[in-house]
């Protein structure tokens, strides 16, 4: 499964015929090959790609040593791609083609502690009929004497966002090798400047 690491730049619009299409711009690659894993040495086949963004902190000593062993500069992010063996020591946006479907993984925006209406789209309690100051409350969360506890996994208020999210089957409108840019139709997870992983989509593949 071929893929690439990059940084979400932001959203804009491009003309597609006579229509304006919203796109997300991703600065992707070039990503150096930091390590190649084989079934003989590691038990599985994979390639490890590296990426470092402008705003990333300085790499740690273990990261520096790992990169030095591969003969590349310090990399802040390392991601493995299974069963993928690219040619050469660098992977660029040219592995993708316009019109191709891709899966994009990123870290969603953290929104802190949120109630059940914002976090889980609950309807809330009635606005009248004796309800006082509990309009956005979840309502009953358990039973009576039996089983006398709250089930695990009950949807309740809590931390919302800041988790790994993958959007599947997005259309890749443009590939700009000279600028290392990918223009992906629609929105992708995460804030501007965040790390994203772009993979060739396997959705619907036979």
Automatic annotation (TrEMBL):
* SUPFAM superfamilies named among the record's database cross-references: Translation proteins
> Which superkingdom, per the lineage?
Bacteria
One Pfam short name: Ribosomal_L3
One GO CC term on file = cytosolic large ribosomal subunit
Q: Which GO terms describe its biological process?
A: translation
| Record keywords | Ribonucleoprotein, Ribosomal protein, RNA-binding, rRNA-binding
The molecular function GO annotations come to:
rRNA binding; structural constituent of ribosome
Keyword Aminoacyl-tRNA synthetase found: no
Q: Does the keyword RNA-binding apply?
A: yes
Coiled coil (UniProt feature) = none
Q: InterPro entries given for it? A: Ribosomal_uL3, Ribosomal_uL3_bac/org-type, Ribosomal_uL3_CS, Transl_B-barrel_sf
The text of the family note is: Belongs to the universal ribosomal protein uL3 family.
Q: What does this protein do?
A: One of the primary rRNA binding proteins, it binds directly near the 3'-end of the 23S rRNA, where it nucleates assembly of the 50S subunit.
Q: Note the subunit structure.
A: Part of the 50S ribosomal subunit. Forms a cluster with proteins L14 and L19.
Name of the molecule in the record: Large ribosomal subunit protein uL3
The organism encoding this protein is Truepera radiovictrix (strain DSM 17093 / CIP 108686 / LMG 22925 / RQ-24)
